[in-house]
Amino acid sequence: MLSATTQRGNIMRLTTAQALAGANSVVAYATGAIIGNQLAPDKSLATLPISVFVVGMALCILPAGMLARRYGRRAAFLAGSICGVLVGLLAALAVVISSFWLFCLGMLFGGGYAAVVLSFRFAAADGVDASRRPRALSFVMGGGVAAGVIGPQLVTATLHVWPAHQFAATFLAQATVAVLAGLILQGVRLPHVSSSERVLGRPLRVIAKQPLFATAVVCGAVTYMLMNFLMTAAPLAMQMCGHSQEEANLGVQWHVIAMYAPSFFTGRLISRFGAVPVISSGLLMTALSAVVGLAGIDVGHFWLSLIMLGIGWNFGFVGASALVLECHRPEEKTSVQTLNDFLVFSTMAVGSFASGGLLSVYGWDTVLLVSFAPLAVALIALLLSVAIKRTC
């Protein structure tokens, strides 16, 4: 167990790093489909860079987890920071030379960076008393509020810095922010990786068979997949409906703020009411965001839908992450958390690929309507979990 001073220091550093490094994902989502639409050889590939970003997350989860398990989380943080710099440099170069495939490669590294950034929430719980872990996890996620401001404002501030190559300066600025986040992470002091953590613990197949773990994975996967599914298409859909890039940037900004602002009290809600009610509220909020989106295509409809989607993501994902903490022993934490994230982001990749095709062929309303099916699956999984728990 870490000292109270060290715990507070870690949480503040991780929260600050979440704010800076989290801007990486915001920049990618705000610009990826737009740049893709400009550079792609076929307009149906416009959202492919975002999908590649998600694939990068899924591909890097397991290697990052192995690195953290063997050498500690700080080693994984360093590897993530290197990816964060590479995405900025490669994406800027791709914009300058008008290379769609180089831009996709940059997005792959961006996904790897995002995968490591998402491990910050679990790192916050290391060395913290079990009763305080949901609050520590939730507080670090709250750093994303600043990311929701930094990311879109970074895009807006650099949009016209290099008129001949729009967005190139944006990614150079993003690489600089990744360096700052990496320097802050070097001050994080976490428990050393013990020999028991490397070799002991139940087989993952045994842990994966737990109904509680299965529920956490399904709810986390659906919540994140739908957030990405709708967020991938939203900026381009706004452009297709005649709205400006600045309006799309503001929509993304308020969406990301809504994703992370509830984190300052989500942990308390979980401690008081339990994870299942919080997850249920998140799924219902996501459903309402789709309903609002179907009601019209004015800027207000897009913005309100994105804000509700962000709140739904927070309740669903933070609640599901808290459930994961209940499914493992201390020596199993890195492997179980890594398995959870791998399953969540692999599912998320499917939704990301589907989003662009649906938008280009069938339109924004179809993208919204399709989202109700996975929501129903997650709600059924929650109900089954509650029923099984009551019979035990």
TrEMBL record:
Domain of life of the native organism: Bacteria
Annotated SUPFAM superfamilies: MFS general substrate transporter (SSF103473)
Domain annotation Major facilitator superfamily (MFS) profile: ranges: 212-392
MF GO annotations: transmembrane transporter activity
PROSITE patterns: MFS (PS50850)
Ranges annotated as spanning the membrane: 46-68, 75-94, 100-124, 136-155, 167-190, 211-231, 278-297, 303-327, 368-388
Gene3D superfamilies membership: MFS general substrate transporter like domains
Alphabetic keyword roster: Membrane, Transmembrane, Transmembrane helix
Name of protein: MFS transporter
